[in-house]
Structure formats: structure tokens, C-alpha cells
Amino acid sequence: MLLVLSAEHRAHLGCLPRAGGAAIGELGRLALEQLRRGAAPRACETAARKLNIGVDTIQHGVEGLVYLLTESSKLMASIPFCKISEVDFQDSIHVLGFSDELNKSLLQLYLDNRKEIRSILGELAPRLPSYHSLEWRLDVQLASRSLRQQIKPAVTMKLHLNQSEDQTAQVLQTDPATLLHLIQQLEQALGEMKMNHCRRIVRNMK
Amino acid sequence: ILDDPDLKDIDPTVLKHCHAAAATCILEAGKQKADISAISTCLEDCKLDKERIEQFCTEYQKNKDALEILLGSIGRSPLHITDVSWRLEYQIKNNQLHKTYQPSYLVTLNVENSDSRSHPDVSFSCTMEQLQDLVGKLKDAAKSLERATQM
């Protein structure tokens, strides 16, 4: 699947051939740092001084590279070493009219960092609170203000969940009958993955 | 009771006192899990005659279990889980990343507050491994429950 590059995007990347081989490495590094940590204007200024190119050109070049890398990583197959995706990338940048050497460096940059970029992009997806862990405790209520001499067993649990960087803990309780019901229901859920229906879909969707 | 035709002739104040007294007596007896002889002794001290004591005790016996259940349910406790629903999904793509191909479970625990007010359910997503971890821990809890009952 080809990547479609807009005219503005192509103009941004147009600075690359003029920049020279060393500059490509530098811009590539800046682009990856931007993906990992966000924009760093000071780093761009330093690079501009070192390479003797205007700051704006550097900035645009870095942004262009970031877009190129993220879009390619987003769309390409997640199977590594898939020949087809490499061809797609090469065809996509071929339209920019760069030299073969430049194309090769860009391809290398993409292949080396594809996995990391995909994992960064994966964290941007919408998320529900996700399970972290569960602690449990067996309690027996012996008496209360309204009734003396009881024997009421209960399982008290602390459910730890992750919600985008925060950890929340919720205290819950259940009685033995419900606990057995929960176990039965969730075991059924686990069993579903092994059923033929799910297996067929997973196989055919790759 | 104030609308009951049989009790029309009695002074409402007296009726209220009687009702309150009887209710208090029943609740105390229920709370302490008093047996028949203790209740009879108590009522004798209050100068009730034998026939009335017997009637009271018979009625009390009939409703004792329901009373105990009611009293036992009063009180605060953490959110109580009543049921669980789950959903298995297979993610294909999202707007940040295409071809993700990952199965995941969405589990919802239906919970109830101790005063029967509804509470938003607890929902979370998890991978197959995480669900296995959760089920393993729940099974440990169930096993220790079983061992406790055999002691």
C-alpha cells in the first residue's frame, strides 16, 4: 500500500538531498527523538548550526521525516522482513526523486526503527482501564451492630487497574457462591479463544 | 396499624406505644439470637399472662429466620460483586496503528452498594494472559475457602 505524500510534505523533505549524508543521520536521530520525547527546538538549533542549514529547514525536515516514519509504520504489515512492505516504502519515497543512496538510508532508518515506532503508536490508541493485578483475602463476619453471633464468609478483593499511567485500586467483596460463579464464567471466556470459530478468524485475518 | 378496623377502638397513642414496644422487643431478641425461654422470662417480668406469651413466642418462631436474614443484611460493606459479563474482541486497526491483530477481553463486574443504591459497574480490559492470572487468583481464593470449611 503506497504512502501518499502531499505537496507540502514533499517540500519539507526536499531539503534532504541538499543536506548531505551526515545530515541525514542527524535528522533521522532528531526525528526519532521527537517521536520518543516530543519536539526539541533546542536540539534542532544545535543541528542547524552544526550542519550550516537554516533552523526552519531543519525543523521541516525533521517533521517531514517524523510523518514519513509514522505513516509507514502505521500502514505497513507488522510481520518483520516482509518483502512487500519494503517495496511499498521504496515506491512511496521514489516519487520524491531522491538519489539511490538517500533512498537506501531512509529505508534503513525505517526498517531499523519500525518496531519501536509501532509500539509508541500503539500507546496512543484509546484505552479502557486495564487489569494489573488482584489481591484477595478471606473474611468471616462474626457480629455486627444489628446481629450478634453470625458466621458470614466473604472474599474481599483489591483490584489494581491501570488507567493511562495512573494506578487505581478498588476494594470489592463477594460471597462464596458468586465467587464460584465468577470463576465458571471467566473460565468459559478463556475457553472461547480456543474454539474453532475464533481460531478461524485469527488465521484468516492476518 | 392505625388503619386496622379491629384496633379502631383503642387510643392511637396507646397503639403506637404498643407497636414500638413490640418492635423493640422483637429486634432485641433477634439481635441477641435469644431462645424461647429467654423471651418468655422477659415477657413474664413484664407481667404478660401465659396465653399471650405463648402467642408471641409462636409468631416469633415463625418469623425468626427471616428476621435474622434482615438484621444480617444491615450494615456497611465494600462494593459487592453480583455478576460478571465478558466480551472477547479481536482488534484489527485503530486510527494510530493499522493491522494490530490482537485479541483482548473486556470484563465488566456488576457491583452493588450495601444500601442497594446502584453503582456504576467496574469495567476493565485485559489480555488472555492477564485473564488467566485473574482466574488463577480467584481459584486460589475458592480453594482456600474450601479448606476453611473443612477445618
Descriptive report:
The complex is a heterodimer of chains A (206) and B (151). With 206 residues, chain A is an alpha+beta fold. Chain A folds into 2 domains: 7-124, no CATH class; 128-174, no CATH class. Chain A is 59% helix and 16% strand. Chain A is built from 9 helices and 3 strands, in the order αααααααβββαα. Chain A has helices at residues 7-13, 15-19, 21-37, 41-51, 55-75, 83-94, 100-122, 176-192, 196-204, and strands spanning 130-141, 152-163, 166-174. Chain A has a 3-stranded antiparallel β-sheet with strand order 1-2-3. In chain A, helix 1 crosses helix 5 (55-75). The longest helix of chain A is centred in the middle third of the chain and has 23 residues, at 100-122. The radius of gyration of chain A is 27 Å and the shape is elongated. The two termini of chain A are 15 Å apart. In chain A, 22% of the residues are buried. Chain B has 151 residues and is an alpha+beta fold. Chain B has 2 domains: 12-73, no CATH class; 81-150, no CATH class. In chain B, 52% of the residues lie in helices and 19% in strands. Chain B has 4 helices and 3 strands; from the N terminus they run αααβββα. Chain B has helices spanning 12-32, 36-45, 50-73, 128-150, and strands at residues 79-91, 102-112, 122-126. In chain B, helix 2 packs across helix 3 (50-73). The longest helix of chain B has 24 residues, at 50-73. The two termini of chain B are 49 Å apart. Classes of the chains: A alpha+beta (206), B alpha+beta (151). Chains A and B meet through helix 5, helix 7, strand 1, strand 2 and strand 3 of A and helix 1, helix 3, strand 1, strand 2 and strand 3 of B. Strand 3 of chain A pairs parallel with strand 1 of chain B.
Name the descriptors.
A: three-stranded antiparallel β-sheet; B: 151 residues; 2 domains; three-stranded antiparallel β-sheet; 4 helices; elongated
